[in-house]
Amino acid sequence: MDVAKAEQIIERHATHNFVVNVLDGGTFYLALAMVSRYTVLPLFVERLSGERWMQGLIPMLAQTGWFLPGLFLAPYMASLPRRKPLLLLYTLAERLPLLVLGLLLFYAPTTAPSLLLAAFFVLFAIHTFGAGFSGLPWQDLIARIIPGRRWGTFFGVQAGLGGVLGVGGAAIAGSILATQPFPQ
Prior knowledge:
The chain is built from six helices and no strands. The protein is an all-alpha fold. α2 packs across α3, α3 packs parallel to α5 and α4 packs antiparallel against α5.
């Protein structure tokens, strides 16, 4: 396909792609605010263990999981003709662990704290490394489906919506923490 035809296709679907991906990103920020690695998750770990060094594992896992996978994925991804299947696979690895953790806490709250703590760290590691592996294909996808002249607006609107929704997510998390028994 020639470049002019590809650009026409991108332009034809640009508004739809813009809106759908802003909503996806904004609602993802909402979800992340509800399980904040800065407030909610350290409180969770502190209540299960009380060991401060374990709380310190949270940002370490988050940063390592986000940055390390790209070093290995970039050369492999560059050789792929299609990246969306890879993105969908890694997005599942990013998002499902948080759902599994929520279901575990809701349906098995009396599980031994050491097992809950181990499950949390395993699931959180899968989540963060899933995020790291999905980050590159996601950025590549955005670069392909949203015209370059709209990238600044896209990321600004997505982050702005995410920030507003994140405030709501923090309020919801605060309400849940105040009204529900631990660890539910």
